[in-house]
Design goal:
- The relative contact order is 0.07.
- The chain has 2 domains: 91 residues, no CATH class; 70 residues.
- By secondary structure, the chain is mainly α.
- It has 7 helices and no strands.
- Helix 5 packs across helix 6.
Length: 173
Amino acid sequence: MGVCLILPLNWRFNLLANAFFFFSWGAYMSINRKDIFTSFSPYFKWTLILYPLLGIAHMCFHDNVELVKIIKLANVFVSLLLAYNLAAWLLKKSYVSVSPFLASASFFIYVSHALICNRMVKIFFMILRPDTDLEIIFTYIGAEVFIVISLLGAFWLLRRYFPGLLKVVAGRK
């Protein structure tokens, strides 16, 4: 399924393949009781090196559409591994701790964000009308923060007042 992510297919199929790939990956890790932190820790140093190199490669080859697509896909995997490893490092050093609420809400946010993300970002851009690059960056980040906070609020409300519905929505029933 991962190969489908780089094939020049219909954009809707690519979105479906992307979602299915990562959902399957998470399901595989869960079913086989793999700990993401220990499974990916051997790649920590490589991700620290590859992540900025992929960013530089993206800037250098931005005109080559096919190559940029492969670079972006590689960047998704590298950044995911980097995020796992950074989280493990932060936990190991006791700089952060696991929030049971955020841990239980993570799948709900993962599933739900795709439903509202594009529309909410467009609304933010229509309302704020950013002009400079910095304004565009802050508008995009602000929209993403708003989406996460809104979904956390929706999760809390569903968990508190409609737990049965939450189980159906989050695929736990």
